[in-house]
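Fresh eyes needed here. Have a critical look at this protein's tokenised backbone.
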Amino acid sequence: MQHSRLARTTLAAMLISGTAISFSAAALPQAPVNDVVSLKEACQQIALEDQLPESEVDAFLLDCVNDQLTEMGYERVASLD
């Protein structure tokens, strides 16, 4: 009986934490387009200064912009096109 109670408690905690994570991710606002453009320009400057190979720039820009958006409390973007 003790094992069953522990299993139910663990399952309930997993479901609640999963719901909380889903809710918080969905609750983030989208960044204004001009903010995304400004962040992309700043990240492009970093890529130039770091002399990244051209083949790595697109992935770097997306990661860089998304890191900044996350810090600002905005939803991440899927692409910068």
Summary: The chain has two domains: 1-28, 31-81. The mean pLDDT is 83. Residues 47 and 60 are 8 Å apart (CA to CA).
